[in-house]
Automatic annotation (TrEMBL):
Xref: PANTHER family: GDP-L-FUCOSE SYNTHASE (PTHR43238)
GO MF term list: GDP-L-fucose synthase activity
Lineage start: Bacteria, Pseudomonadati, Bacteroidota, Cytophagia, Cytophagales
SUPFAM superfamilies to which the protein is assigned, alphabetical: NAD(P)-binding Rossmann-fold domains
Originating species: Algoriphagus boritolerans DSM 17298 = JCM 18970
Domain NAD-dependent epimerase/dehydratase residues, every copy: 8-106
Protein name: NAD dependent epimerase/dehydratase family protein
Amino acid sequence: MENQNPKIFIPGHKRMVGLPIWRLLEEKGNSKLIGRSSRELDLRKQCAVTRFFEQEKPEIVIDSAAKVGAIWANQEYPYTLLMENLQIQNNLIEASHHFGCENLYF
Ligand SMILES: NC(=O)c1ccc[n+]([C@@H]2O[C@H](COP(=O)([O-])OP(=O)(O)OC[C@H]3O[C@@H](n4cnc5c(N)ncnc54)[C@H](OP(=O)(O)O)[C@@H]3O)[C@@H](O)[C@H]2O)c1
């Protein structure tokens, strides 16, 4: 039978996109939601992300974390925004693959 209460990691869980996802899943009765602030887990750091997946072994990842800027920031800091977001995504993709998490949503 399909797992009705999977362990779900929601990067960016306290902010604009992640928080409503967290609340919706909580309302639906999921009791195994995992969230970390960027201070607790900097997703740009591959070693930290690997260690986190090793410990927590999430079954589902819903990525809503990103370095976000307005039009001004995108024009002013294109390299920083692009690189940080690629680092975040790549680390999540790599760790999900490595630790057998088959459901990664972006
Ligand atoms: N808002 C919208 O209307 C909208 C619409 C479509 C798509 N999106 C996309 O959805 C994503 C999130 O947008 P948002 O509006 O929710 O942004 P946001 O409110 O600025 O939230 C960004 C989240 O990402 C986390 N984060 C950033 N850098 C991190 C890092 N190095 N390590 C760990 N966590 C990190 C932040 O954590 P901390 O707060 O702990 O630092 C925060 O929770 C972006 O890709 C955006 O383009 C947003």
